[in-house]
Amino acid sequence: MSTISALVLAVATALPAAAPAPVPAGAEAILAEVGKPGASAVLVNVWATWCAPCREEFPDLLHVARELAPKGLRLVLVSVDFPGDEAETLSFLTSQGVDFPTFLRTGKDEAFVNGLEPQWSGAIPATFLYDANGKLVRFWEGKASYPVIKKRAQKALDTKETR
Amino acid sequence: MTRTPLLAIPVLVGLAFSSAVGGGPLPIGATIPMLDVAMKNVDGKELNLKSVVQPAGTLVVFTCNHCPFAKRWESRIIELGNAYAAQGIGVVAINANDPKAYPDDSFEAMQVRAKEKGMEFPYVVDATSNVARAFGATKTPEAFLFDKNGKLVYHGAIDDNGEEPSKVENRYLKLALEAVLAGNEVPVKETKSIGCGIKFRT
Fold it and tell me: Which residues in chain B touch residue A112, judged by CB atoms under 8 angstroms apart?
């Protein structure tokens, strides 16, 4: 192997793989994703690249998702970035090491907000936690910290035993 | 009998809801809260909501400088505010964000923005975020319109399309303002839009 190709390989392996482009989705599609079989709990997070608390919370959400994935936690990320912000959204997802499909909100605000959860005011970040049956067990507006997210997700996973 | 309230708690909580506010928004029909709280306007003078209230009706909009949603609606908020203030509606824009979280939301930046955009109504600082808390506002932008009796008749979005002004189908706030001026019932009283969560001061 030449020095140059070795160097190229080294650089290529050091860079995270590009994240998949977010899939356009309305509230129904997000809820369908929540209801897909195979998860013991689902965490849905609504975020945007320009939303500072969303960006701050992002690594903690991913951390919890990675730790609890073996226990059946699924993370569904929904960006509400504006049309035209696709490159920035993708670049942020890539920088965070997101290697699974994520979503981009489509349609009108009100249909999306009320379709996802009537109690949600529309403020972001917003996070929704569902149990294995797709029932909403908790939601919160504003960012949460790693231990808080983990505790809540763990609790949602634990309720599985009692059903 | 002390056990009854304890037993009732799980029923009441039902779904655990945690938000920055908790109490929920001001219900339709409510009166204007926090009338006497002094807030600093971009002209450097302090005012309170009592001084904003007008006999024809009063519009309170929680907004800010930094939020991309608020920015998308900014021109529309100012256009409506200026137009209806001229027709006798009391109008105020309130920034409840902690500027430590968002430097763009500082008082100086608000002064610049108000001048740049030609705001003809006050743009004030909710220095404790307690006015926003009392309204149950959670995000920017978020509008509260009170009728001539000082009762909340509209709460929610400016219109139904922040991203693309040309694609707006329902001008909720404008319709509500028209109804208030005409003394009619507001057709759609509560709407929602996606917005930046207010960074409440602690």
Answer: 194
Q: Does the beta carbon of A95 lie under 8 angstroms from any beta carbon of chain B?
A: no
The model carries a pTM of 0.88
Q: Which domain holds residue B33?
A: 25-197
Residue B19 contacts A, CB cutoff 8 Å: yes
| Position B202 in a domain | no
Query: Quick check: is B13 in a domain?
Result: no
Note the pLDDT tens digit of each residue in A87-129.
999 999 999 999 999 999 999 999 999 999 999 999 999 999 9
Dist. CA A121–CA B70, nearest whole Å: 15
Q: For chain A, what is the domain count?
A: 1
Domain-located, residue B106? yes
B157 with A125: Cβ contact below 8 A: no
DSSP conformation letters of B95-164: E-S-TTT-GGGSHHHHHHHHHHTT--S-EEE-TTSHHHHHHT--EESEEEEE-TTSBEEEEE-SSS-SS-
Q: What ipTM goes with this model?
A: 0.85
The one-character DSSP state at B16 is: E
Q: Quick check: is B169 in a domain?
A: yes
Report yes or no on A118 lying in a domain. yes
